[in-house]
Amino acid sequence: MAVTMVKKQAGLTGNSAVAYAMKQINPDVCAAYPITPSTQIMEDFSSYVADGKVDTELITAESEHSAMSACIGASAAGARVMTATSSQGLALMWEMLYIASGLRLPIVLANVNRALSAPINIHCDHSDSMGARDSGWIQIYSETVQEAYDNLFQAVRIAESEKVLLPVMVCLDGFITSHAIENISLLEDAEVSQFVGGYKAQHPMLDTDNPVTYGAMTLPDSYIIFKHQQSEAIGRAKDVVVEVGKEFGNRFGREYGLMEKYRLDDADVAIVILSSAAGTTKVAVDELRAKGKKVGLLRPRLFRPFPFKEIADALKSIKAVACLDRVDSFSGFGSPLFNEIRSTLYEFEKRPKVINKIFGLGGRDYKVKDAVGVFEELLKIAETGKVETLIKYITL
Amino acid sequence: MNMGKMKDLPIGGVITEGGTAHEYVTGGWRKLRPVLDKDKCTDCLICWVMCPDSAIIVEDGKMVGFDLEHCKGCGICAEECPDKVKAIKMEEETG
Amino acid sequence: MTAYIEIRWHGRAQQGVVTAAKVLGEACLRLGKYVQAFPEFGPERMGAPVRAFNRISSEPIRLHCQVTEPKYVLIADSTLIGTALSKGIESSGSVTEGATEDAVFIVNTPKSPDEMRSELGLKGKKAHVYTVDASKISLETIARLMPNTPLLGALAKATDVITLDALVENFKENYSKKFSPKVVEGNIAAMNRGFQEVKGE
Questions:
Q1: How many CA atoms lie within 13 A of A313 on its CB side?
Q2: Which of A4, A143, A179 faces C39 most closely, judged by CB atoms?
């Protein structure tokens, strides 16, 4: 995969950008079983391996379950490990996801978001990664090709931070981001290696002078202790995400935080939405602002750990908020963003009305007019204080 | 491992030193105790090969007895001792 | 408000419209533009109708939805005109669907723009229609039925979306490693001929 740059600008698909980031990170091990729409990541990366552009040991596994198992083994052995998957692939990794986080292995996984079957569908929604939201992985959602690329470097630093030592999932939207060519500003290889640095595992299994055991059984007297440690570690990850995002900004001019606020500070109503659909929503915000409507947007970048305090602070004085989920928590009380945000606002006596829209499942297009429709409903709620439907499908 | 300081346990349930199984005294699980008749023993060391708990003590190539702190009394040594020899017998633990 | 150009490509799988959108995006990027190039993926097999899209702007593009109101429509296979691409699915409209009133249509066909105007159902409408025999050009230049590159040349002539020079420069730079010199030369010849042979009204 030849990448041509003009004034450090290139045009790459999200997948090629992720593969290029992996090439620049040059992990020790990559074990994968390609699946649409993330396939091109491994396609590109395997040519980097074949061309000797990286030192990575590439393991082509026979399933995603095996791929994640190999990642876990390699990470426990002391390697820096990366992989990529989507949808059913992430679903098949399921039990291993918990083992990666439970063993505190800083694996970095690029998840190209895709709907779960059935009916079979290869297009974007967040049912894959949202299903894994309680697996103990840190989750970062990317709006653009540029951000997916930038997030990968930061993910390595966050995962390997001594305060954290947990796996990180970098999510980007299937097809919308993974297969779209967009402008991207690429880093130099040397800049990347300086930023990510080397990795020295604390307890590598391959250090035969200091033998260790991974995966020992724990009984009721100790299991909860390890889970408590894990819970505290993922909590600490929030500050590390901020630190690493700041350092990235200082070095390369693109700063990242826990969330992005777009024309939110003086807004009466706001949409909360993840990933690429936030871009489309921003266009709707601009359209309505031009007409004098005080609308804004909040795009959480970090979803796990959920930065509840910061998000609550950003939203508490808004009158009406719509959480737009690209996933349905079937028969739950609304979907993940709604759950988190409504519950985080509960502690305030004066709090926004919060509604939930489920949109864009299986790649259904989410247009500017869809966002405008939601904003109009919110403005009405802000005016009357009345919510007609709390949880509703849109883009049907 | 000192369970009194559980908060300081290494993360991820990793056991950070080797040979810790030695500290786990499994001899208490034993109902039958292996008893060696050294006169019959030919030091063929089949028992040493077969013991699942590495509880056969061998010195200078000779079978000298059992590590009763770790022997669980499974009887494999007695079973595997060749028919012509039968130098190990399992006897009820007397407590 | 960001001003951007929206382009839609129609073709059949294997005719290279996804690549055409990619090449156009790269060429515009070389001129310092912000670009998007993305395909619409369905159950593609050789011959299945395929669409690809471009957005081009002098400012960063934030939209991440489909292109539904294109200003420029490029049709790599004229048999797609007037056919219902499939029934009941939102994403499979006709080639004229949603196109702006003053849209520019560039069709791969030996027919005249006037004939295509009536086939497209655009008689008496403001839209502009151009034709180019891209299939014939591609057979003569690269010996394959690959109408995408002549169409890019035609786009450079018929509109100010991109210049022929930028297309050629980009192709030389980005594809010389991937393809043999013969293929690169053939594609550049195809662009040139598309540029020269496109017919307007």
A1: 5
A2: A179
Considering the domain boundaries, does residue A322 fall inside one? Answer: yes
CATH number of the domain that C91 lies in? 3.40.920.10
Contacts 24+ apart (CB under 8 A), A393-396: A393/A328, A393/A357, A393/A358, A393/A359, A394/A324, A394/A357, A394/A358, A394/A359, A394/A370, A395/A359, A395/A360, A395/A364, A395/A365, A395/A366, A395/A367, A395/A370
Between positions 185 and 204 of A, the ones with CB within 8 A of B are: 203
Q: Tally DSSP H helices, then E strands, for chain A.
A: 13, 15
Separation CA C177–CA C184 (nearest Å): 10
Neighbours of chain C (3+ CB pairs under 8 A): A
State which residues form the domain around C155. 4-197
Distance from CA of C102 to the nearest CA of A (A): 22
Contact criterion met (CB < 8 Å) for A2 and C41: no
**What is the value of pTM for the model shown?**
0.93
| Same-domain status, A360 and A219 | no
CA distance A393 to chain B (A): 41
Specify the number of domains making up chain A: 2
ipTM of the complex: 0.90
CA angle C40, A128, A232 (to 5 degrees): 140
Domain around A152: 9-252
- E strands present in B1-95: 32-36, 56-59, 62-66, 88-92
| pLDDT tens string A229-280 | 999 999 999 999 999 999 999 999 999 999 999 999 999 999 999 999 999 9
Q: Does A233 touch chain B (CB under 8 A)?
A: yes
Residue A312 sits in the same domain as residue A225:
no
Lowest mean pLDDT among A73-87, A98-112, A318-332, B14-28: B14-28
Residues A276 and A243 in one domain: no
Residue of C62, C91, C97, C170 to mutate, interface with A, max A Cβ within 10 Å? C62
Q: Which amino acid is at B33?
A: R
In sequence order, which residues have a C-beta less than 8 Å from that of residue A55 and are 6 or more positions away?
A26, A28
Return d(Cα C111, Cα C147) in angstroms, integer. Answer: 15
CATH code at position A363: 3.40.50.920
Do A32 and A85 touch, CB atoms closer than 8 A?
yes
Which residues 121-180 of C have a C-beta within 8 angstroms of A?
173-174, 177-178
Structural Rg of chain C based on CA atoms? 16
Query: Are B14 and A214 a contacting pair at CB < 8 A?
Result: yes
